[in-house]
Amino acid sequence: MSTPNRVYLARLAGVAVFDPNGDQVGRVRDAVARLRPAEASPEVVGLVAEMPMRRRIFLSLNRITSIDVDAVVLGSGTLNLRRFEKRPNELLVLQELLDRRVQLDPGGQAGTVVDVAMEHHRSDEWFLTRVAVREQTGRLSRRGHLHQVEWEKVRGLTGIADARGTANLLAVLADMRPADLANALQDLPDGRRNEVAAALDDERLADVLSELPERDQVEILAALDRERAADVLEEMDPDDAADLLNELPPPEQDVLLDLMRPGEADPVRQLLKYTPGTAGSVMTSEPVVLPPDATVAEALARIREPQLSPAVAAQVFVTRPPLATPTGRYLGMVHFQALLREPPADLLGGVVVNDIDPLRPATGLPEIIRRMATYDLVAMPVIDQNNRLVGAVTVDDVLDHSLPRDWRDRDAPATTGPVLDGTHG
User: Where is the stretch described as Disordered (predicted)?
Assistant: First the structure.
């Protein structure tokens, strides 16, 4: 194995995994160690890699030909695609050890685990041998000294952990997409998951909540104090916030909506009024809306805004003022590809198209799917009886509400490919 004899595992988090042909097959998310008796250093038996569609599988170390901070390379042969499940005598190194509060021997100096190293022995086995521990100073303005000590000289690495921080685990998870971070949170015990979620900033937590199963969303929100929960709901897209609030009892909905700023709560309240399974219940109330006298250049600048999702940014809806939903009279829409073909100084009123009938708030999901498929659209306008734009249904809204309710749940049954040779451990 062309690999350093010592590898610090937090540095491997997120590293790409390649097959022998050089094709990327996933990314490293953790390492699996087997506990041994009498406080002996655990044996590292493999890595956990995340594959497409959020599937996490086990990679035995004897199938890996190279490990470094740039890439993990697999040897020849096929993979076991069965979803990874930790066994009772195993330890997920990053998940369970980072931020753990421990004591150093001799002297009992308290500290926090920031990384763990594995080393390659002559027997061709790998063991957890060294732990990077930062001293606790008791002073917020000063970071404690960082020690790199042998596994046997650290107390508290196994057994039930005391309450602990989240800084080092968050550092490992920092570069993940919201969907991948949501997937990682589902691997954590409930208490640890809630601690890590609460440590995210409001915007990041809002993005992650939108990618979690409803059950986990509700449990994380309930673990926050109500003012913080309201702040997070304000950062969510109104349709996602409405979906989450729909999972709560009406009295709790009212409390949280009252704590939100009126400008953020009002569109959510409106979405909660619509019947589930209709255009009104699945639409976003914040599409891109511009007046007919806006220029093509202004429209292109608007859809470049980074906070817009690809589906929302794919078209501009043109209405009379006011431009906030419910708008003035709906005039039509312009797809971004049409904008790219027009002179920048031209007005939207001259390129708008309105040859497809908009949806009504009461239009059912099957009809929405049929019409979007018929016209190859990624979004459709929703107008009220007064011809005012009240929102837009996007293809991601349709997918979210067409898939089974538990499709984001890691524990939900799923159709998988064949299980090939190789076993966990």
Answer: 404-425
